[in-house]
Amino acid sequence: MSFSIADLFSQHFDKKFSLHEEHLNNQMVRVLRTIGYDRNYKRAVGQYLYDENNNEYLDLLSGFGVFAVGRNHATVVTALRETLDLELPNLVQMDVSLLSGLLAEKILETTPDNLSKIFFCNSGTESVEAAIKFARYATKRDNIVFCEHSFHGLTTGALSLNGEQIFRDGFGPLLPGCKAVPFNDLQALEEALSNNDVAAFVVEPIQGKGVNIPDENYLPEVERLCKQYGTLFVTDEVQTGLGRTGKFWAIEHWGVQPDMICMAKALSGGFVPIGAVAMTQKVMDTVFNRMDRAVVHGSTFSKNNLAMAAGLATLRVIEDEKLVENSAKIGEDIINTINATTDKYEFLKEARGKGMMIAIEFQSPKSLSLRAAWSMLEAANKGLFCQMITIPLFKNHRILTQVAGHGMNVVKLLPPLNLTQKDRDWIVNAFDQTIADTHKVPGSIWSLGKTLASHAIKNKK
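RE: above sequence
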């Protein structure tokens, strides 16, 4: 009897949510149904999703930044099919693979000149775990410094560097020796490093939770302070890398040279889990310093042929289609166009970001009636106003977005880097109409707000 994924998909298409309720995380299904995101998607191409009725949705989450080249890109699909058809030897553990060497070489062509070695793993959180271990071994120090409100992953080591308490609660004790400092605060960082006992400072060049952008001198001074106190400077570019911010690496905006770069997400075009750490030769050679330490750290599936082939194809697509340049151009246009409406809308504070890593932040208005409505939502659950933006964007305009983090009034966009002018118009027009509707009190959008507030109050009980 033949086995067919297409048949399975067709036969069980309407069971997606019930299967998750019974066998997986049923709370996620509850969330989707509560906010009206419970769609049955049947197909995905580029920046678009299509449901069972062939309605087209613009995906501005791209799998949390995974699909930088768009979903199901033909070049990456072809590379994967070719790799399978070749019947290559894969994961021959007492061997080294050609494709991983080629991908490492290609990645290092894009990084600062001081980085010359690559370690492969399976995810962003694994890349951070590797960076923690390598930094501790290379410096013979135990302590790690990170930033408040940062996000570096959810495995125990990476979670120890997570600046959002909601992810940490109940999962302790976490790694000892991990200290948080405020982002963009050089004085606090120097105080943390000054005892000469910190192995690494791990930082997102632009914080993902909220899309917080540092001052122009912050990262250059971070690099200087790390060198001064013998601390390794580690940048987490899991989300910001590979063209997301309008540069191939976000650190290029500030011209810094870290000792390690963590990467993942977009590296395989969204097809195969992959992560990597680019590092100096000194770090690599210190950790893997003898033949009996050749396997002192690794990951079983890390250099598998499919991940490596997908990575090579993805880098080719980014280069050939000039996606970094497109990210910079379209992203800046979206930010500037939305910012041009701040005088028109009291709720709108600003749009900010770099490239296609964009935040749209909202604020308490000056008008008495609007402020009363805002306060009602904030009292129910801080940050709830943004659901009055994201839900109508999805329901009325078929645009998929997210709130940038817990307890903040920021909507975050992480679209594929191949957005067109048509997509740009779709986005700015949808935001304009949706924000305008929030200023009509009372109005249909505030009926949604009252429903959201009642759900929030009920959940608190």
